[in-house]
Amino acid sequence: LRKGLRKLPPLYAIPTTAGTGSETTIVAVVSDPKTHAKYTVMDFPLLPKRVFLDADLTRTLPARVTAQSGMDALVHAVEAYVNGYMATAETRRQARQATEMIFRYLPRAYADGADLEARDKMLTAAFLAGQAFGRATVGYAHSIAHAVGGLTGMAHGELTGICLPPLLEWYGAAAVPRLAELADTIGCTTPEMNDTAKARAFIKEVYALRRSLALHAQALGQVGNGAAGLLEHIGHAAGDIGGAGVLADLLALGIEVVEDLLAALDGNGGGAEAHVDGTVNKLIEFHNHGWLQS
After folding, report:
1. What is the pTM of this model?
2. 93 contact partners, CB below 8 Å, separation of at least 6
């Protein structure tokens, strides 16, 4: 953080994918092919002076990259929204708007790359999600995706999309109120639903979106020798914005917690709650007034 040695020339950003939101953040990520680590650089000169969103520049983006980058934007929005630690009313407004737009327009952009309305809306959604997480930070899905992505070379957006819905289940009651609000935002609720039912409905929609984009869960529990390998790799992911503390918490809590988390991630939905067994409560207790606390 704040490691810039000299003033940079004016930076103008023209994104050609709709996902990272890097055009509106102070963050850049550098991958080291030798150590398989990803390092985050954060400094204010990296914030572009102007941003130009041109849907035509994303028209020929392959469907798979459209899906991967779009899911990355969704994870930015959802993690920024449920974050009770640094979120503000403005970041939550941006995250809600981005979430609604992604659910509406990502399937269209994925199905038809020449759908310029969908492309334009996805660029706007990724920008809003980038603004939201730039202030509110990201969470566990990004932290794990950075560590696993460094080990495997898998696309970051695909990994975050794989991680998000089982992690939302894994969070348990701490995330229910915010997830219920997002469920209302995307219109997957009915008047008789309570917050828990709404949260489950939202998670179900995330699973459904992920499947519709052919982003299926991998055996993450087998990546890098499972929990032991991931813990060994935690130090390399410590530069992840909003993620260093999360990974440090997992390391402090021990290998049993990481094994429990990986078991929850190692599937396609509907069973993550079977792996909770108090792990989230331990993590929240460890945090005290931590990431999920409002």
Report:
1. 0.80
2. none
The helix/strand/coil state of 134 is helix
Q: Which residue has the higher pLDDT, 278 or 2?
A: 2
- CA–CA separation, 103 and 106 (whole Å): 6
Q: Which residues contact 160 (CB under 8 A, 6 or more apart)?
A: 71, 72, 75, 141, 142, 145
Q: List CB contacts of 256: < 8 A, sequence separation 6 or more.
A: none
The answer to whether 142 and 79 are in contact (CB under 8 A) is yes
| Alpha carbons 22 and 3: distance in angstroms, whole number | 18
Residues 6+ apart with CB under 8 A from 275: 170, 260, 261, 263, 264
Chain centroid, CA 43 distance in Å: 21
**Residue 60: band (very low, low, confident or very high) from pLDDT cuts 50, 70, 90:** very high
Strand-pair partners of 32: 37
202 close to 182: Cβ distance less than 8 angstroms: yes
Q: How distant is the alpha carbon of residue 271 from its chain centre?
A: 21
Q: Which of 212, 213, 210, 186 is nearest to 199 (CA)?
A: 186
Instruction: Please answer whether residues 163 and 155 qualify as being in contact, where contact means their C-beta atoms are separated by less than 8 angstroms.
Output: no
